[in-house]
Amino acid sequence: MVLSTHIARVSDSLPLAQSVDDVQGPDLTQYKQQAKLIFRKLTPSSETRCSIDSGPMSLHYLVHPPPSDPSSVVYLTITEASYPRKLAFSYLDELAREFEMSYGRQILQRTLRPYAFVAFDTFMQRTKRLYADSRTAESTAGSHLDKLNEDLQDVQKIMTKNMEDLLWRGDSLDHMSTLSSSLRDESLKYRRAARKINVDAMIRKYAPIGALVLLFLFILYVKFG
């Protein structure tokens, strides 16, 4: 189930809104600290959708507009690890649409104070109840899931990380994106090198034959020319 939700401005990690959580639920303190860590590690090249596994919990975040945009906002929810990722991102999509429609023009204000949009909790609580149970959410959020499937095409396209990587190795959230770009560059270099090797091999293979043909034609030219 959806346990806690946090919204922050990407450029400076300023918290904009946060859900009022059920005090009877699990202790979320450490996971809220992890959420703040994620906000600090976002960069302009970070993935826009990411699921981070953290023991019995998972943290899912959505960035909109993309991190490179000055008005970019990150929407993060903490769920049980068994909660379907598709539902988590459908929930975040709903929040992003409503938040941008309600407060989008105010995001760039430098005078914003922490939790300036605390009133948004009313919408978060109403939407959270729809997604509280995964079976209920799957039956009530069909249209949103269809749109999400169109956007993602495949749930595997959502980047996944492990919280231990962020805590102990200090990996940034754009590490996988950077690694992917490096692999593409290396692959391109390899293909170019392979083509050059093939051309060189053909030259070495047929150059002697070509030389003999030219020599034969030259002799014919000298003899009968």
UniProtKB/TrEMBL annotation:
Membrane topology value: Single-pass type IV membrane protein
SUPFAM superfamilies: SNARE fusion complex, SNARE-like
Gene3D superfamilies: 1.20.5.110, Longin domain
Compartments in which it is found: Endoplasmic reticulum membrane; Golgi apparatus membrane
Ranges of residues in domain Longin: 6-124
GO biological process, one term: retrograde vesicle-mediated transport, Golgi to endoplasmic reticulum
Keywords: Coiled coil, Endoplasmic reticulum, Golgi apparatus, Membrane, Protein transport, Transmembrane, Transmembrane helix, Transport
GO cellular component assignments: endoplasmic reticulum membrane; Golgi membrane
GO MF entry, a single one: SNAP receptor activity
UniProt keyword annotation of Transmembrane present: yes
Transmembrane segments: 206-224
CDD domains (UniProt xref): Longin, R-SNARE_SEC22
Main location: endoplasmic reticulum
Origin superkingdom: Eukaryota
V-SNARE coiled-coil homology domain: residues covered: 144-204
Sequence similarity: Belongs to the synaptobrevin family.
Record-given protein name: Protein transport protein SEC22
Source organism per UniProt: Malassezia restricta (strain ATCC 96810 / NBRC 103918 / CBS 7877)
